[in-house]
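tool_log.txt
---
The assistant was asked to compare two proteins side by side. It first ran the structure predictor on the initial sequence, then on the second. Raw inputs and outputs are pasted verbatim so the downstream comparison step can read them without reformatting.
(1)
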Amino acid sequence: MASQKPRILQDTRDMSWSLIPLVLLCLIIAGVASQCSFSPGGPSAGPVPTFDIDAGLEYDAKELGFPIRHPEAPEGWQANSGSRSIITGEEGGDSSTVGFITPAGRYVRFTQSDAGEAELVRFVAGESRTATDTREIDGRDWVVYGEEDAEPLWVADFGDVRILIGGSGDEAELTTFATAVGEAQPLEP
């Protein structure tokens, strides 16, 4: 006579007792490998990544065919990312982007490009937006592209270059940064 139960008599209780050791083994391996943690209060913010804005913008100034500005970031702002992209379209061109984290933990994007304003806005927003307002900051007009439930984008024409600032920053932060951009002189190529 067979010592095992017939398959028809096996149930979920038997399966549960078989899975418990496997689950415990997986948890032990994950714990030893430091790949899991227990945080009853939810996730916590880690350190902000750093980006060498000086080296990034100096390199862009040498490589790109338009004036690159290096504005003095407000106190407490930390550059955390940088990239270069090609904007396609009838008035496309190159772009240089640097991201900042403000002391309030908000992200502010700073993009410089020789592309046309419409292509630049479309590239950043991923959709067609219309101008909703303007701001005059230190004698320069910034066109505001805003939509409900979307981060505002501010664009100004600096002649050979269009500059876009935007992100989750509030109006005061964007105004402060727009002032810094207006005061910045182009870097030497």
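(2)
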Amino acid sequence: MNREQLLRTLKSYRTPFEEEKSFVEEFIALCEDPLAFSRERKEGHFTASAWIVNKRRTHALLTHHRKLNRWLQLGGHADGNDNLMEVAMTEAREESGLISLKLVDSFIFDIDKHLIPANSRDAEHFHYDVRFLIEAAMDEPLTISDESNDLAWVNYDIIPDVVKSNDSILRMLEKTSKSEFVL
């Protein structure tokens, strides 16, 4: 999914979630920026994430992010790669050590715009996160990356307690918990 395909997909993207609907036009506009997939765009840039679930849709793989000190889905910066599906799969492999990753669908699963706090290297900025639904086997060994404090398969029932008020994760959880969203 290159820049042009991403733009076409975003233009036809439909969601029943109001917050997600509010991001679509900004994502479309960002596609036009030559630096959209680069950290050089200081005010914000595209990232890609993997919502990794088991085949039975009872658990999601979450990482305890070292810098943000929160449980999140796996993902990262595009670093110039405009194929966000490829970025999501690469980040999922690098951050989990999983080999059995299977892209459930080539369509965008979720989008989210969120603020990243300033740190020693970067000023406060936005991540325009494009997410893909990925399946993996829970019995495969996990490898914790340098970017994480921990990595765990979390039962759907306790994800709300683990992620607290992270609405975007709760939205992805809802999408994989309800039959109308399950592919």
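---
observation on (2): The domain at 3-177 is CATH 3.90.79.10 (Nucleoside Triphosphate Pyrophosphohydrolase). The chain is about 30% helix and 30% strand.
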